[in-house]
């Protein structure tokens, strides 16, 4: 029986609705398995701008650092679109990633038998897809210096730098191997080693780390080929690990394999403290406040928290099984409903999942 403190940052729009659902599901797990979860709430995003005058208040950051894990909803909305850059909700999200050293972004993409029609791809292509993209989140092209624009000899130029330190590559590749060890034991390391020095170093380090994991198979794939293979035969992948920008692009591509944004969770693991869990979707202003949002992405994010931050695999499985069960029973929020299917609200979906647990 464990005691865990969870920082809950609902944020804006449907973020508030779906985190409420995820917290209720965690409470059901608490009851069934006899753990104690303490939920501590903090402001982030537009809500924090309104309440505290900044998208990431110091007290929110302190609360997160004192917790065992962070559960986040989503930030943003039209209300704050005209604000200056330092008062934009999204700024809060970038800051928290940086401040908490969240270097590894994990996005599982899983096929659900009952939802085949929500993918733009043919069923035989996506059948059985169960992969995780592990994206490096705090280095590479998005952070390397020099970066910026300049005029030299009257010529306008712009530069970005793809820079990695050996240790930064090592730690992200290790995350991928450790994950693969608990799954189908295959790591695909994606790079552009035919062109980029950083990729050649990445490849060497991946080989080095692989020595520590003799039970896991390592393959290398060029990023252009990986983009193609994800659509051609996504079943071949287990764990895909790659640098920041490649991962940014491939994880969005992969998320479309199974269709709805409302189904897909994510984890951002920290190098130095608590990790953060959030659905990959945004605040969805178009449906906010209507009790319509699909809470499953947030609920599956909570399951990832149970497994990865607390080591509670059985509990995580109980959540995932409950989700599968209600989907198999035909329960659908609007985003995943086909013509003629009965549509349930956020609250109804949450209640059914709780009951299944
Ligand atoms: P952001 O910039 O914050 O990522 P976005 O423009 O990518 O936002 P989302 O907020 O993710 O957009 O929403 C995109 C579309 O998907 C919207 O039409 C929204 O209603 C829908 N959507 C997103 N999440 C969900 C959900 N959990 N349930 C139902 N529909 C959703
Ligand atoms: Mg988006």
Automatic annotation (TrEMBL):
Annotated catalysed reactions: (2R,3S)-3-isopropylmalate + NAD(+) = 4-methyl-2-oxopentanoate + CO2 + NADH
Residues annotated as domain Isopropylmalate dehydrogenase-like: 5-353
GO CC annotations, alphabetized: cytosol
Primary localisation category: cytoplasm
Cofactor(s) the record lists: Mg(2+); Mn(2+)
Binding site for NAD(+): 77-90, 282-294
Keywords associated with the record: Amino-acid biosynthesis, Branched-chain amino acid biosynthesis, Cytoplasm, Leucine biosynthesis, Magnesium, Manganese, Metal-binding, NAD, Oxidoreductase
InterPro entries with a match to the protein in the record: IsoCit/isopropylmalate_DH_CS (IPR019818), IsoPropMal-DH-like_dom (IPR024084), Isopropylmalate_DH (IPR004429)
Lineage: superkingdom: Bacteria
This enzyme's EC code(s): 1.1.1.85
UniProt cross-references to Pfam families, sorted A to Z: Iso_dh
GO annotation (BP), single: L-leucine biosynthetic process
Binding-site list for substrate: 97, 107, 135, 224
Gene Ontology molecular function: 3-isopropylmalate dehydrogenase activity; magnesium ion binding; NAD binding
Subcellular location as annotated: Cytoplasm
Description of how the protein assembles with itself and partners: Homodimer.
Protein family (similarity comment): Belongs to the isocitrate and isopropylmalate dehydrogenases family. LeuB type 1 subfamily.
Full protein name: 3-isopropylmalate dehydrogenase
Organism: Parageobacillus caldoxylosilyticus NBRC 107762
Recorded name of the encoding gene: leuB
